[in-house]
């Protein structure tokens, strides 16, 4: 049974196990009659060959309140795009597969490049950003949910609980962030959230003092979750990070643009498991190593924009304070795991904390060397102001791909 604790910074919507999926679905169907709901699925072609996505589609095929599903397909050639069209055809909802690597979509990207508005690098951030632009061009949805395509524990209850706070017209929330326990294969998972973000925020509060933004991030039980629901009104001016800081970046944008009472976190699953990234201790350009650097940079940039002064001495102190906080939390995670019959490899966890401590310094060096770097993709409002026909032309490009490669 969940608790009912509220942290006082953002609202926490718990699952008290008192309503069924069918009950929530009935209500969402009623609301969807006047408040259209869409779903974005950013997907690599390789995920079509995994174990998670077929189950996700099976569950989604039983969801009656979704108006449109937008699948952003990355790293696919023409034959793979055709196969993806067939693969997703089991969905009974109105759905579209956007072939991000098609010649027409590349031409759209070239136009953005000419304007200086193109995403700086490929990845999930660019994929989600493109899907948002497509939905905004359709102009027929009031709520959009986003989740990954590698969730092996997925069920439709997860989507219903994620959407409910922003779909219910009697609630004030414009952004809902999903949270859950990261447990799988008899282990506590979620290394970056547990061993980087939580102790880093504790350390930052000690080193740089009280900041409302730090308290805001600490209020989220799982700030790195890839599941979120938003009212489409906030999407026009949402800056999507192009690197691995996507989830922290979206929370930062909600902090910048919305009142705290407009943001909530919602418990969407008893347990959650998905594809795990390698730590990549020897290569800072991939895996959790790169992710940790990008997340740190995203937090540093946001605090700097709010007036926090960083220098090399601050980052050295932050590294030391972080490491002590991480070891303290590791003790708590280990005891929690033991009581619940789960495993935590303390040696590996300490090695992970050591790597993250080094990456805090690396992120600090990158920040100090490039303090004005802005890895955010421009907002769709800015794109529309620079080229008022681009979003419409994107719709036409997607439609032409569907026709020519069907």
Automatic annotation (TrEMBL):
SUPFAM superfamilies, per database record: Nucleotide-diphospho-sugar transferases
Protein name in the entry: Glycosyltransferase involved in cell wall biogenesis
Organism, scientific name: Pseudooceanicola batsensis (strain ATCC BAA-863 / DSM 15984 / KCTC 12145 / HTCC2597) (Oceanicola batsensis)
């Amino acid at each position: 049974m969940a608790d009912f604790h509220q942290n006082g910074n953002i609202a926490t919507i718990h699952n008290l196990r008192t309503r069924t999926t069918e009950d929530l679905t009935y209500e969402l169907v009623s609301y969807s009659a006047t408040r259209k709901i869409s779903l974005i699925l950013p997907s690599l072609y390789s995920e079509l060959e995994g174990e998670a996505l077929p189950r996700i589609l099976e569950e989604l095929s039983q969801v009656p309140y979704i108006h449109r599903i937008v699948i952003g397909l990355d790293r696919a050639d023409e034959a793979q795009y055709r196969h993806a069209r067939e693969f997703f055809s089991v969905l009974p909802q109105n759905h579209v597969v956007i072939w991000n690597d098609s010649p027409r979509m590349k031409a759209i990207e070239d136009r953005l490049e000419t304007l200086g508005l193109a995403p700086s690098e490929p990845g999930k951030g660019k994929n989600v950003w493109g899907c948002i632009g497509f939905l905004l061009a359709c102009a027929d949805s009031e709520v959009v949910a986003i989740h990954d395509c590698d969730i092996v524990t997925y069920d439709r209850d997860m989507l219903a609980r994620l959407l409910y706070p922003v779909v219910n017209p009697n609630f004030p929330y414009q952004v809902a962030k999903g949270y859950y326990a990261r447990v799988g294969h008899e282990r506590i998972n979620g290394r970056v959230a547990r061993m980087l973000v939580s102790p880093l925020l504790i350390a930052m509060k000690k080193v740089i003092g009280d900041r409302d933004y730090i308290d805001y991030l600490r209020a989220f039980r799982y700030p790195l979750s890839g599941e979120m629901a938003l009212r489409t009104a906030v999407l026009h001016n949402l800056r999507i990070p192009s690197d691995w800081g996507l989830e922290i970046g979206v929370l930062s944008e909600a902090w910048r643009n919305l009142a705290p009472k407009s943001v909530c976190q919602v418990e969407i699953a008893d347990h959650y498991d998905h594809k795990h990234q390698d730590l990549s201790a020897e290569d800072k350009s991939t895996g959790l190593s790169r992710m940790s650097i990008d997340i740190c940079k995203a937090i540093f940039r946001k605090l700097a924009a709010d007036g926090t002064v960083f220098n090399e001495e601050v980052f050295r102190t932050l590294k030391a304070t972080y490491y002590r906080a991480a070891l303290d939390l590791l003790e708590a995670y280990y005891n929690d795991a033991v009581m619940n019959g789960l495993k935590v490899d303390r040696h590996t966890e300490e090695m992970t904390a050591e790597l993250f401590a080094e990456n805090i310094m690396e992120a600090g060096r990158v920040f100090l060397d490039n303090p004005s770097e802005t890895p955010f993709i421009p907002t769709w409002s800015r794109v529309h102001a620079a080229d008022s026909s681009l979003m419409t032309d994107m719709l036409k490009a997607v439609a032409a791909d569907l026709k020519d490669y069907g």
